[in-house]
Amino acid sequence: MKDFIIIGHKAATVPFSLNDLPGAAGRMDILCRCVNAALFLSHDLRRDVRVYLVLKGEPAPPKLICFNGAEVRYLSPDERSAASLIRKALEKNAQDFWTESMPGVSIRKGDFGDLICELNKKIIYLREDGKDIRGKEFGASPDGLLFVLGDHMGLTEDEEKTIEGHGHEIVSVGPLSLHADHCIVLLHNEIDRIEKHI
Ligand SMILES: C[S@@+](CC[C@H](N)C(=O)[O-])C[C@H]1O[C@@H](n2cnc3c(N)ncnc32)[C@H](O)[C@@H]1O
Question: How far is the CA of 150 from the centre of ligand 1 (A)?
């Protein structure tokens, strides 16, 4: 199992217009592209992947949304499709526990720290100045892998402190600062190559 957490610092926490994902929806476009990069293959889905979005924008933060690749339906590889599933989840009255809004998509109240505690795995934090991913062993961890990425704002000091309170390592996918969804594609490719012994 590969889990991805992407933090959306401005991402709307009530239903939003699908016509302004970067603006009024608080850079929801970034999160939607991350969902697609994490889950989609050509004509298939990565069923061993879960994507967690941390929505921290107004007016009702924080909320968590989960896309489970093993169960998700009605998701196609465009931003609007992922956005409409997020919006549908936000129509639910979020509780302190996960509630499914559509097959494979769930929502709950909660912050990044709550999610990290719930998943209870070693964190691989993606950051530009981290250790080069090339040569890293992605051994068969019984719990699977947990990756954390930021949006256009990166991670705050507080979020980094939360990570520091858990087992973690900081990893870079390359020498330049990239979009989070591009990092996810590169990350998948590195792990695919290891898993296929290339
Ligand atoms: C657009 S970048 C964030 C840039 C932001 N201005 C900052 O200063 O942190 C979005 C996220 O992608 C990830 N990222 C970008 N480039 C990376 C790289 N070369 N290696 C690892 N992660 C990277 C990080 O998680 C980052 O928070």
Answer: 6
**Residue indicated by tokens 């858990």:** 166
Distance 186 CA to ligand 1 centre (A): 13
Give the CA count within 13 Å in the CB-facing half-sphere of 155. 22
DSSP letter at 154?
Answer: B
When pLDDT is averaged across residues 51-58 and rounded to a whole number, the result is 98
Distance 131 CA to ligand 1 centre (A): 13
Residues with CB under 6 A from ligand 1: 126-128, 130, 149-150, 152-155, 172-174, 176-180, 183
Q: Which of 7, 33, 56, 126 to mutate to test the pocket of ligand 1 (most atoms within 8 A of CB)?
A: 126
**CATH number belonging to the domain at 2-195, selected among 3.40.1280.10, 3.30.360.10, 2.60.120.320, 3.90.220.20:** 3.40.1280.10
Q: Whose CA is nearest to atom 17 of ligand 1?
A: 128
Predicted confidence (pLDDT) per residue in 109-141, tens digit: 999 999 999 999 999 999 999 999 998 887 667
Alpha-helical (H) ranges within the chain are 28-39, 79-91, 112-119, 157-164, 180-195
Residues sharing a CB contact under 8 Å with residue 36, sequence separation 6 or more, in sequence order: 77, 78, 79, 82, 181
> What is the pTM for the complete model shown?
0.97
Contact 168, 123 (CB under 8 A): yes
